[in-house]
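Write out structure tokens for Peptide ABC transporter substrate-binding protein.
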Amino acid sequence: MSTARTAPRRRRALVVGACAAVGVLLSGCTGGVSAPSGSKNEINYALPANFTPNWIVPIGTPGHLNTNNASISQVLWEPLIAYDGSSGEIGWNKDNSLATDAKFAADDKSVTITLGDRHWSDGEPITARDVEFWFNLVRENKKSWASYSPGKAPDVWSSFETIDDRHFTLDFDRAYNQQWMLANELSMIRVMPQHVWDKTSDSAAVSDLDRTPAGAEKVWTYLIDAGKKISRYASDPLWKTVSGPYRIKSFSTSGRVELVENEKYDGGGAAHVKQINLLSFTTVAAEENALRAGTVDYGYIRASDLGIKKSFTDLGYHVERWSGWAVTYMPYNFNNPEMGAVFRQLYARQAIQMSVDQKTLSKVLFNGTAVPTYGPVPQGQPSAFLSDEQKAEPYPFSNSAARKLLTDHGWTMRDGTMVCTSPGAGEGQCGEGVEKGTEFKMRVLSQSGSTETDNMMSALQSSFEETGIDFDIKTAPVNSVLSQTGQCEKDDPACKWQLSFFGSAGSWYFPAYPSGDALFASGGGSNFGNYSNPEVDRLIDRTTTSSSLDAMPDYSKALAEDLPVIWLPEPDYQVSVIRDGLGGFAQDSLANFHPAMWAWTE
């Protein structure tokens, strides 16, 4: 996603009109590209290839959980507590947060939050009532909230108590790890203008509807339905009351977004540039042509193009790798009626993982801009969260070992494909639920628009074939992949998907504290494949409630061994190409972009 829920800041863009470059046709540019104006009042920022922004509402729903959507939303409505790495280190960015302080009780069972003296763009003060509004909506509609995981926010908050306009207390259902609560749970709270949004239709009067369960459900439905009307984002009065450094000027369904400075902003993270233009491209090649034409100020190149970076530096750009606090993977659909029973066998997942040559993929296919991932904790940066077992690669690449693992469990190679010939749950058999004659055939719906991703899928196909596993590849834009491969029940028509890939720039960007409650806990909001393991649930719970230094490494070890997904190389978020003179920020490893920090320094 992301896709994933967390992320803080990221890229840029300027103004554009025709998709023509110097002697090169920019086929595939959907954002519209014109010659650079030379104005220091604008920045052109290139969005990831094949990404079309499709959500601004500060409450995420399934299918809209992408870090770029979150980045746009957060410059319009600032989070209560913004965590990011835009200063070079991950931490609480108070300049772009609405809260100024968080004091935990001595027993770690509550926290009292202080709000800054801030105002909405219409002049009304931002108060605890606006936080309560978000709290009530999410509490009553949590199963429709994409970030929901049972037993986590909002379940962890037993009550909301307003002290005064600028202070409130959240009581917890038990004691929690302060680091996890602050960085992962409280950072999800989005303060919303209750005095504008607490209604059920465009013509309805605003009232305290959110304070009853039925009213909160109706308000939620109204806001979510309004959020689906992308073409009205710039004109709908609903979205004009903001708290962040920017407001919407235009929002095209084709992918171009124009943000202009919120001149009423009174926070610490004011915009340095009056207008930000976010540009959408269908391919990386089209975006690279726009860079060469000079119509993008902050863009990217393929990892495979690092060898020709001089051609960009000669044009007045500098090239920087943007690494992420993330993991990359393909989730299994454990409820798929055809292959779910196979995926539920640990030995089968081990054979699949042994067929993935992460080291070679990282070095050759990604030109050294990716690192192998062997478990649920990011491995691109050193951390105390990572277990020795995950670092050591529990299942080294070996097609021969993978084949033996399958034949030892009742599979026989026939015409190049493994077939279950010994069904049953005993030793040397295929496992519970795997029927005789089942062919080891997998299909993936993979994100389109990335040469590296396409090449990786082809390499995986060849390697799986060596093991005796068929691997069929279909591609679609990332928004389509996310919408077609969600949680499902076995008999649900939407449960036909088997494997999903949405990680061209990393599959999941973590908050500062990389616990897996949303991803791998039973029923987790982003546990797309319905993975469930009671022992892992216990370990995940421990990472959120215990201050023990062993909690995260123990969790890291367990999921490196149990393989809830197919672990894949974690690529840099992107290899950025930035116009000389554009600075004022660090590339945030949490993967969001924060345009208010961008500034022309020359």
